[in-house]
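User: My advisor asked me to double-check a structure prediction for Succinate dehydrogenase, hydrophobic membrane anchor protein before group meeting. I don't want to rely on an old file, so could you generate it fresh from this sequence?
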Amino acid sequence: MTNTIEAPRSPARPARKRGTNWEKWGWIYMRASGVVLIVLIFGHLFMNLIVGDGVSAIDFGFVAGKWADPFWQWWDVLMLWLALIHGANGMRTIVNDYTNPGTVQKVLKGALFAAAAVLIVLGTLVVFTFDPCPPVAADAADLLPSFCSA
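Assistant: Sure, here is a fresh prediction for Succinate dehydrogenase, hydrophobic membrane anchor protein from the sequence you gave:
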């Protein structure tokens, strides 16, 4: 007496699609950006809170002085970009987990992409175009910070 097993209706493991495995690269990005963000965030906190006078020293002049140095501009922009992309990718994963493929999922992912893109663009513009001493009319000169000449 021989027992035979019927052929399965579908393969146990579907054939791998050709092309880029975006889920794998998203997973790798989350791990790598998380490690880099730890360094960037603790460096940011150390410079802003430990070095100098701590929280009481953080004001408009402190930020203006910090962003006068291109190193700190790039540090903050890198932190901004990595954090926003990291967060948007995490939210994309949650959308994938809790919604069915279709219109709702596409709309939510599109909204995530749009929000992240707008915040990245606006944040980058703020950091690189920040001018603590903008030109003002003579009657508004008293609104300038003390370190700006009228």
